[in-house]
Design goal:
The protein is mainly α and 494 residues long. Among the domains are: 119 residues, no CATH class; 42 residues, no CATH class. 62% of the residues lie in helices and 5% in strands. It is built from 19 helices and five strands. A three-stranded antiparallel sheet has the order 3-4-5. A two-stranded antiparallel ribbon has the order 1-2. Helix 1 packs antiparallel against helix 5, helix 2 packs across helix 4 and helix 5 packs parallel to helix 17. The protein is globular, with a radius of gyration of 24 Å. It starts with a helix and ends in an 8-residue tail after the last helix.
Length: 494
């Protein structure tokens, strides 16, 4: 890595501190349960108290807003999503109690750490601390990631673990190529190349993918996508090292261990995330196997878990309940239908309203100057990969495709724009790569680099202004109704 290792950390940490300040400031606003917090906040509390999600009463939201924990009824609750995201929410509730700050704390922490990871990943991919900081800054002021960092929903945890897995694989790529180069330099290998031994970063990536799937099931698409991506990197590394049978070496010699790292390890991690349910006596359908004549220790518990997951899969794949904020995936990149998590209409003298009519909203919407520009950036990355086979362009395309394209196969299912947060960091990385192209390499002429830097600076300024303008409707500030309406650029945003 060129440049100062110290500034390689100081720069990203400063950008992360800025993003964390934005996210933690007024985290308890609104001081009520918003959108799907109505499910995940009591689910997390149930995990704390019973080890697994527990049934709760219908009028729970008012009690939760007052910090009253007497919300449970008898029996385990059937849930639509695995437990790990709710376990992370439960950590905040354990630390700070049943308060808005407590149940949003974990989301805010991982949303802030995602900024640091994005900056460091971009730095490693581009070999530029400046571009790493640019990527971190873009994610810091990305509206959708900002809102979900301040809301106790599961998608931010899914995004975090997918991004962590990607970062592990990027580090593994660098280390594997270095080990391969050293091995080939020491002595000529056979025609398939040397064995590289245990690759701990790839194993860690498998753990992260398992935690992603254990937070929300659509993380499963990243397992084959990232496995194929890392195998392609291995084949490319062996070709670059002059190995005659690079395809065989990448697919067999290295590739067979991918099944362990990125298939077996995620599966084991996923099951481990259910430990609370497995060791509980009150979890929903926990005794299904025993009730059907299967009493073998361990096997009985795993069979019950398998049947429970089958029921969850059926529910998730057949969910077609109409919702006023639902949208189709082809509309997500253009921000056609954002989701209102919270809306209130204070009047004069109430909640700080100083005019006749005010609005207070949490609108889950991406920063337009990031989402709209990312469309062009993805097109450039696709052309870049097709013509130059640049691995970085291909990697961000894989990250976006695995989080976005599978939803086109479930058009009848109820879907929401905020699902796209899982590939939000990859949009930022795509833009960052294109800004790097615009600025040019260090050997580029001074005019080229000056013009590129000026255009990049102007773009970053436009993004900051765009985020600043939308900030009131992202963070539930009380503003005059006319100011709120001015920020609703399209009728579909209302």
């Amino acid at each position: 890595m060129p440049g100062s290792a110290l500034w390689g950390w100081i720069g990203p940490l400063l950008v992360t501190a800025f993003g964390a300040f934005l996210r933690f400031d007024r985290l308890s606003v609104p001081p009520s349960v918003v959108f799907d917090e109505t499910y995940y906040v009591p689910d997390a509390l149930g995990i704390l108290r019973y080890g697994a999600e527990h049934n709760y009463i219908s009028n729970r939201n008012g009690l939760i807003a007052r910090g009253d924990t007497h919300i449970f009824s008898a029996g385990g609750e059937f849930v639509a999503h695995p437990p790990f995201g709710k376990i992370m929410i439960a950590v905040g509730e354990w630390l700070f109690g049943l308060t808005p700050f407590g149940w949003r704390f974990a989301a805010c922490v991982v949303g802030s750490l995602a900024i640091l990871m994005t900056a460091r990943i971009a730095r490693r991919m581009t070999r530029s601390t400046l571009l790493g900081c640019v990527a971190g800054l873009l994610l810091a002021v990305e509206g959708l990631e900002f809102v979900l960092s301040r809301t106790a929903l599961l998608d931010i945890f899914l995004m975090f673990w997918v991004l962590a897995a990607f970062g592990c694989l990027v580090i593994d790529r660098d280390q594997a190529r270095a080990r391969l180069a050293r091995a080939v330099a020491r002595r000529p290998a056979d025609d398939a190349g040397p064995r590289l031994g245990v690759r701990w970063w790839r194993l860690l990536a498998g753990v992260c993918l398992g935690l992603a799937c254990a937070s929300k099931w659509n993380g499963i698409w990243y397992v084959p996508a990232f496995a194929a991506m890392t195998v392609a990197w291995d084949i490319g590394a062996r070709r670059a090292a002059g190995v005659p049978r690079a395809l065989y070496g990448g697919l067999v010699r290295d590739g067979r261990w991918v099944l362990v790292s990125l298939a077996a390890v995620p599966a084991v991690t996923y099951v481990a995330a259910w430990s609370g349910w497995l060791f509980s006596s009150s979890g929903y359908d926990r005794n299904w196997a025993a009730q059907h004549g299967i009493h073998t220790p361990v096997i009985s518990a795993l069979v019950s878990l398998f049947e429970y997951n089958k029921a969850m899969l059926h529910f998730d794949s057949t969910l077609i309940t109409h919702h006023p904020y639902q949208s189709q995936p082809w509309s997500w990149m253009v921000l056609a239908r954002p989701v209102s998590f919270y809306y209130a209409a204070p009047t004069l003298g109430h909640q700080g309203c100083q005019v006749r009519s005010c609005s207070q909203e949490v609108l889950a919407i991406g920063t337009p100057m990031i989402f709209w520009v990312s469309i062009a950036a993805l097109v450039i990355c696709a052309a870049w990969w097709l013509t130059q086979r640049d691995w970085r362009a291909g990697a961000v395309l894989v990250g976006v495709a695995a989080g976005w394209l599978p939803w086109f196969a479930f058009l009848s299912r109820t879907k929401f724009f905020f699902y796209s947060v899982v590939y939000d960091p990859f949009l930022v990385l795509a833009i960052t790569l294109c800004l790097g192209l615009l600025i040019g390499a260090a050997r580029a002429g001074p005019v080229r680099r000056s013009v590129g830097a000026a255009v990049t600076g102007a773009y970053l300024l436009a993004v900051l202004l765009n985020f600043w303008y939308l900030y009131p409707v992202l963070s539930a500030q009380v503003i005059p109704y006319s100011s709120w309406l001015a920020r609703m650029w399209f009728s579909s945003w209302i």
